[in-house]
Design goal:
Blueprint: H1 13-43, H2 47-83, H3 87-114, H4 116-122, H5 130-142, H6 144-159, H7 163-187, H8 192-215, H9 232-264, H10 268-304, H11 308-335, H12 337-342, H13 348-364, H14 368-380, H15 384-397, H16 399-410, H17 412-442
Helix pairs in contact: 1-7, 1-10, 2-3, 2-5, 2-6, 2-9, 2-10, 3-5, 3-6, 4-5, 5-8, 6-7, 6-8, 7-8, 9-10, 9-15, 9-16, 10-11, 10-13, 10-14, 11-13, 11-14, 13-17, 14-15, 14-17, 15-17, 16-17
């Protein structure tokens, strides 16, 4: 403890980013694979069960806002503190991240548990879906404190440069979840509640691994308060960077609520189709976010150390890598949309609805990599306002009003078209902020 991760300032940028990104991408991939496997297992219980996890997802995503806000904000702050040699402040940033996520995540989880039925109806549950969604949502709401705590731990461990351990802890929990799913759902005959219990047990396993990490002397920071360091400026710094991501995740929930409520006016199968498409999209998005989680501490460290040339190299390399990946993934989604849907269901209505939505989503996915890099750079460098503008534009300020405007004329297709229009506008905003940041770094 007290030592700095000097390799962030010495190793070649491309090699450093790929080395740090590989464990992070594997972590997010395993999480996404669990989500896909979960949908495949639960899909065998019928369209109503599949709809239950779809309408529960926005509630759980909102609770996860707190883990994302404190985890990402704390990670950005501590990486910059480590870069400038302020280890005590980095320790305090880690403390704020973990306990802030735990407290607010617990409050949100208890609230969701108490009001689970009206929340499920608000997020699109039909009369036939509610009996499946209530036990699933209640169990996961009560266990959400563990989930958000793991999110914060994961960001903090990556923020100090130890992406490999973060990968190990998260991947171990995901593997346990995938194993427990069929055992509890089918062998123990617990149904959809078994899927929820499998998730909570695996999250507890991951939490134990993170606690073990901070009990050992293999870390650069410790989660403790240094009495001589005021916490208020560090809390402000954490929230300044993390709050845009909170807003982003909040509007994810809002957008999913709108989409679910539009889908339920057609059929239960349409809600299930939306859930499957979201998981497929998140498979690609999680890979991009996995890379960006590695970019965040690298950019923050080099910015804090005034290594601006290395920061420019990291930015350029990341834009090229993620733009190429986004293009390839978008082509796969567009060309193989209906074949992908057949993996999850044999229902013709579900395949037709989901395939059409997935095909349109594939057309705009190539923009996502560039936009994610620009947002991550602003977060890493302590510039929250452009990140907040991009977050708001992506999730709420553009998509929701455009979708509501087009729905009366185009139906479900209006939702898809609104995503395309908003992505074009977000690309324009990202280009503007990207060129402005480039000029700032050049000076």
């Amino acid at each position: 403890m007290g030592q700095q991760p000097a390799e962030m300032g010495q190793e070649k940028i491309a090699k450093l980013l790929l080395r740090m990104a590989a464990p992070s991408i594997i972590t997010t991939l395993t999480t996404s694979l669990y989500s896909i496997a979960d949908a495949a297992f639960i899909g065998r219980l019928g369209p109503d069960a599949l709809g239950a996890i779809t309408v529960s997802f926005p509630i759980l995503a909102f609770i996860g806002c707190f883990g994302l806000m404190f985890g990402l904000g704390g990670s950005s702050a501590l990486s910059r503190f480590l870069g400038s040699g302020e280890t005590g402040k980095a320790d305090s940033a880690a403390l704020i991240a973990v306990y802030g996520a735990l407290f607010f995540g617990t409050c949100a989880g208890v609230t969701a548990f108490l009001f689970i039925k009206p929340l499920l109806i608000l997020f699109g549950a039909t009369r036939s879906i509610v009996p499946f969604a209530i036990p699933y949502g209640k169990i996961l709401s009560l266990g959400s404190a563990v989930t958000v705590c793991n999110m914060a731990f994961s960001y903090i461990v990556r923020g100090e440069g130890n992406t490999r351990y973060s990968m190990t802890a998260m991947a171990a929990g995901t593997a346990a979840n995938i194993i427990l799913d069929p055992v509890l759902i089918f062998l123990c005959k617990m149904g959809i509640a078994g899927a929820a219990y499998a998730t909570i047990i695996s999250q507890l396993f991951t939490l134990v691994l993170f606690i073990i990490y901070y009990k050992k002397d293999v870390k650069y920071i410790s989660i403790k308060r240094h009495r001589h360091i005021p916490l208020r400026p560090i809390i402000k710094e954490t929230l300044k960077i993390g709050f845009p991501s909170f807003i982003n995740q909040f509007f994810v929930s809002a957008v999913l609520a709108v989409i679910n409520n539009v889908a339920k006016t057609f059929s239960t199968e349409s809600i299930g189709a939306v859930g499957i498409v979201i998981r497929i999209l998140f498979f690609g998005i999680f890979i991009i976010f996995g890379y960006c989680r590695a970019l965040l501490p690298v950019a923050g460290y080099n910015y804090g150390a005034s290594e601006f040339q290395r920061l420019r190299e990291a930015s350029k390399f990341s834009i090229i890598v993620l733009s190429c990946f986004s293009l390839i993934f978008g082509i796969i989604m567009t060309a193989g949309a209906y074949s992908i849907l057949k993996f999850f269901s044999s229902d013709a209505v579900l395949i037709e609805s989901g395939g059409r939505i997935l095909r349109y989503a594939g057309l705009v996915f190539p923009f996502f990599g560039f936009e994610a890099v620009i947002m991550t750079l602003h977060q890493a460098l302590g510039k929250p306002y452009p990140a907040a503008v991009l977050s708001l534009a992506r999730q709420g300020v553009l998509i929701i009003p455009i979708a509501l405007l087009l729905y009366p004329f185009l139906g479900v297709k209006g939702i898809v078209v609104s995503i395309f229009i908003s992505e074009v506008l977000i690309l324009a905003l990202s280009l503007f902020f990207g060129f402005r940041l480039k000029n700032q770094l050049s000076r």
